Amino acid sequence: MFIFIILAFVIILIILASSGYNSLVQIRNQVRNAWKQIDVQLKRRHDLIPNLVNAVKGQMEFEKGTLESVIKARAAAVGASTIADSMAKEDVLSSALSKLFAVVENYPTLKANESVRPLMEELTTTENQITFARQFYNDITTTYNTKLEMFPTNLFASSMGFKFFPLFQVKDAAERDVPTVDLSLKK
Q1: Helices (H) and strands (E) in the chain, counts
Q2: Residue 160 exposure: Cα atoms within 13 Å on the Cβ side
Q3: Which pTM was predicted?
Q4: Fewest CB atoms within 10 Å of the CB: 11, 38, 87, 171?
Q5: Is-cis flag, bond preceding 108, omega within 30?
Q6: CA-CA distance, 141 to 34, in Å (whole number)?
Q7: What percent of the chain is modeled with pLDDT above 70?
Q8: Could you read off the pLDDT of 99-114 as tens digits, one per residue?
């Protein structure tokens, strides 16, 4: 009788452990898939940037530093080797692209240019898709990381090779600032 109780206990432990392991594998694969969705959008972004730089290069000779920073940041982002490395380098690229967008916005001839306008629209659409993909990635990654910390999976997760995935975060203090909107009519 005692052996049946021990055997039942062992079977229950095996079922719980395999269930926990399988759910971690499932969520980890969802995190990897979410990252691949971001990666697809980043590839699209990386492909659009040289075309945009070439389209505005002739009209932006005086803004050469902005173009060079975009090209340099793109090259670094393309060469990223890990998710964390990619996140850091993509932040730099996003910052450089923001400056380029601001420059283009300040020059009506660039905004109206037949080759620049569609590229800017495509790049803006891609940036929005990257934002949505990052949000989904952060959501599923938070679920996965939380599961790694919860009992009983925290007892065996690290010994079975499950590691935390990084989250996208706002790095630049300027991005955290809330813009001031003044709609008063001053004369």
Answers
A1: 6, 0
A2: 15
A3: 0.79
A4: 11
A5: no
A6: 9
A7: 88
A8: 888 888 877 777 777 7
